[in-house]
Amino acid sequence: MSILNNDFLALTLANQDGITPFQFSFPGGIGFVEDTGVLRLEPTQSSATSLVLSVGVHGNETGPIELVNQLVTNILEGAVTLSVRLLVLIGNPVAANSAKRFCDVNLNRLFSGAWQKFEGFEAKRAQRLEQAVSDFYSNVENKADQVKLHYDLHTAIRGSVYEKFAVYPYVENGVYNQEQLAFLAASGIDAVLLSHQPTTTFSYYSFAVHDAHAFTVELGKVYPFGENDLSRFADLKDSLTLLLEKGVLAQSSLSSLCAFSVSDSLVKDDDSYELSIADDVKNFTSFEAGYRIALSNKSDYYIKQTGDAIVFPNTNLPVGQRAGLIVRCALMADLTLN
Ligand SMILES: [Zn+2]
To answer: What distance in angstroms lies between residue 233's CA and the mean position of ligand 1's atoms?
Structure first.
């Protein structure tokens, strides 16, 4: 068995409901299709680096899916010689086939066991993806030296003042990893959002449960399959190729990165809740102090400091859920790094 045309995306979309696992060889290693959208590639030479690349956790976020599929094709064809362990996950093939963000519930809210409170396709899928990551990180001889990485690649619903940004998982001690930040900078990431609390996202799961360096990476706006200009991801493609081939994390100066800390979470507290922003407002759009950005029959929210910005605004969700984050620019020089 092998992957027809070395096209893992086509194989996945053609088998959205399941696939018989199989093993194959490629120049420089052995591959395992473990399940629909679950591909493990093991290089011939053992490596301490275990890299997870997940894409399509939201089914319609096709750009990163095409990017990573192209990297996989390059490896399977021998154009790129793999030197690290690699797990590629296409998160939500059913939603991808119907060009939807999700079928029943947002998959990227269901990790760290949150799937247990839900039913439907995404709940089962979150459990399966957790298992795939867990198996991947535990399937090594020398666990102590393992470098665990997980980049969960997305595109956003809306535009962004910073086109590409990463979400840094909540770290309790407030210490951020310099090498990872420099890798994100080298990958063309413009800004880093420092999480203020634990979440149930996929990347947070790998960070919290497996102690991986794990990030949600937003790469620009959503487009349908075939309509993505992959040249917009050129820096990321180059840095991922370097990582795949040499096991090296490309490094750039942190001066090109803007860091944002979360100052408040906006919560939809009533059916009357609305945000006083245009529908197409970009992520990281900033406001003047005193601007009433949210209102409902129960509450108002006024911008506290000029320059405070909104990220992930969305009121099309149930009462009690997060309608956006208010973030504030933090100086990279003020962060504690290790
Ligand atoms: Zn997404």
So the answer is: 16
